[in-house]
Design goal:
It contains three helices and no strands. It has 88 residues and is mainly alpha-helical.
Length: 88
């Protein structure tokens, strides 16, 4: 009972942090602020998936979190390159 409550509290905190980052994503004054907020949201989603996967003992969620993290990293690299103005 206590372990489930701990997992639920941690997941709720991660979701709350993601909502705060969503606010920064919408009102960010620069494109770089929005990119950082999006990357932070992606990291929080990966952490939440890993937490839920550990709570329910679902290995498939850990696999999905790993693939999502890799795709998020590549997406962040492309966004950074676009913001820098580099050529493809």
């Amino acid at each position: 009972m206590i372990v489930e409550l701990g997992f639920a509290a941690a997941a709720a905190a991660l979701v709350a942090f993601a909502l705060v980052c969503t606010i920064r994503l919408t009102i960010g004054p620069t494109a770089a602020d929005r990119a950082v907020a999006l990357d932070t949201i992606n990291t929080l989603v990966v952490a939440t998936m890993a937490l839920v996967g550990a709570a329910f003992r679902l290995v498939v969620l850990l696999d999905v979190a790993l693939v999502y993290a890799l795709l998020s990293y590549v997406g962040t690299l492309y966004i950074a390159r676009y913001l820098e103005g580099g050529s493809w």
